[in-house]
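Lab notebook page, bench 4
Experiment: in silico fold of construct C2
Operator: M.H.
Input chain length: 287 residues
Purpose: comparison with the prior construct
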Amino acid sequence: MPASGTFSSAFASALTTISVALVGFGIFSFAVDTKNWKDYFAERIKEVVIESDYLNTLDPETLKELQTRLLKAQFKNSAIDKEGSFLNYFHHHLHRFISEPFREDVSTEVLMREHPSQEGLFQVTDKVRYVCRSSGGRIQAHIGWKPDEGEFEEVLSLKITVQYPPHHKNAGQKVVIYPIDGSVLNNDLEAGIKIPLDKFQDIDSLVVTTESEYVVKLGKFQYWQMAHPTKNFEVTITYPSAYQIQFKTLVLEDVVSQITMYSGYLKFGYGSWALPQSGIAWLISKA
């Protein structure tokens, strides 16, 4: 071992210092490289699992489990899927609506007038117009019209028309899809009808109009419900000024609704999403 203070001793000390520095630099470089590799693989995993078509290869149950894990992490709640939870209800009853075709800008006009020959009855003209929006390359499968048992005293007429949207080659053209031959059987209307839209399935923004006329009893509740997920709707009801109206909304967000009421006139607008079975109810009675 070189004597202290000699050149050999200084040289040995320098070699030791350099060796320690090189080892330290090597450890630092390894740590940096390890972090870089970790980041690299993390990004690759993210691309494979989240951003690529990998998810499309998974079966529905695996995707459901993945979604549940995500929600548990998001809400910091490991019991979010316990028996009887809202998440279970959502999966069974609401989840399918996310990808279903929907309706947009629904407009309804209800004109109520006293029956010309029978007291205590109203003759009603009901016109509904809406836009069919596609999801997954298709719009709703059919148009249904069916009164509940005892809802109407008599159904007088029904007409259903579709209109091609502005971007279509037949833009503006209207097609009557019911009644096809110009004749209507009242017993068919009492039982309800279902008209398929097979020929129009790939036409996003197809406009549908239904015009019906029926008779209702004074003092009987009427209601109007969504048959599909619906974005934005409005209802206008006119009735003789000698009567009064009771009105109830069946929607989730009343804060985005607007009501205008005068004698013999009511207009309700809703600027948000409404689930099937949401809607409004009203009752006409003597003032």
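Observations: The chain has two domains: 7-97, 100-286. The mean pLDDT is 83.
Next step: discuss at group meeting.
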